[in-house]
Amino acid sequence: MTNATNNTPPSAIILAAGKGTRMKSDLPKVCHPIGGRAMVCAVVDACLEAGCERVVVVVGYKQELVREALISYGDRVAYAVQGEQLGTGHAVMCASDAFEGEPNADVFVLCGDGPLIRTDTLATMLERHRGQGAVATLATSVIDDPSGYGRVVRDARGRFERIVEQKNASDEQLAIREVNPSYYVFDRDSLFRSLETLERDPVSGEYYITDVPEMLRASGGRVEVIEAVPSQDVLSINTPEQLAEVDRVFRARAAGAAGISDGSAS
Predict the structure, then answer these.
(1) Would you place residue 3 in the very low, low, confident or very high pLDDT band (cuts 50, 70, 90)?
(2) Which of 62, 49, 227, 72 is nearest to 154 (CA)?
(3) Which of 42, 89, 124, 186 sits in a 20 to 30 Å window from 51, CA-based?
(4) Residues with Cβ < 8 Å from 211, sequence gap 6 or more?
(5) Hey, which CATH number is domain 11-251, 1.10.340.30, 3.90.550.10, 3.30.420.40, 3.30.565.10?
(6) In degrees rounded to 5, what are phi and psi of residue 258?
(7) CA distances from 250 to 50, 115, 198, 261 (A)
């Protein structure tokens, strides 16, 4: 199994179909404001700045509000609909028709509720992915409190084995501090072929994208893991309080970047 190593611009699939039940609001989670705009806008911006020519946003719950939040992007953003919430793997499956008939290329798969994403991180991932001829590359983060995150399991040589969700992790695996913040880049054809045989989680009944890298590795593909996501960037947004904290970080970062660009002290 080989990847689509070439100079074809990458694409992106952004998962934005969820409700966000803990946000105490009927607004889709990705529409909550960060820095004065719907948080999903920051993810779209990062993808476009990283050279993505095609960005497909997977919508579902109150999709009209997500589309409205992204209307200023015009035809730079396309949409796929996840009519039923059957997990992240299913959400990516729903985007497959958007690439029908297109030549194979690399595709980022990202979550729309991660507005602290950096263009530099995506560029680093893509460089490693193409440089190593990988079919999948994950960017991970090492954090002090990994509670709630999938753990990245490596073998004795430091190579990727699998992602283990917290609910399925052993005590030894729970001690792992390298987590999966859901930053992926895949060879697109390999991704969609794997999704055709992806099985439902026996507990939740959902399809998880986290199973795909292990499937690709087991079938002979090269899977790269790069610790490239700053710990601050993986701050969760599941409550109004967490939303306020991420907004504070986002605005401080934007103010610092503005200070550098105009020559003033940051």
Answers:
(1) low
(2) 227
(3) 89
(4) 89, 163, 198, 199
(5) 3.90.550.10
(6) -65, -40
(7) 19, 8, 36, 17
Q: Tokens standing for 220? A: 């002979």
pTM of the model: 0.93
Predicted local confidence at residue 100, as pLDDT: 93
Of 22, 159, 248, 251, which residue is the catalytic one? 22
**Structural tokens at position 107:** 């595709």
For 35-62, b/e burial (b = at least 16 CB within 10 A) is bebbbbbbbbbbbbebebebbbbbbbbe
**Cβ neighbours around 9 below 10 Å, total:** 12
pLDDT confidence of residue 264: 46
Beta strands 37-38; 77-81: pairing state: unpaired
162 is catalytic: no
Asked if 60 and 40 touch (Cβ cutoff 8 Å), the reply is no
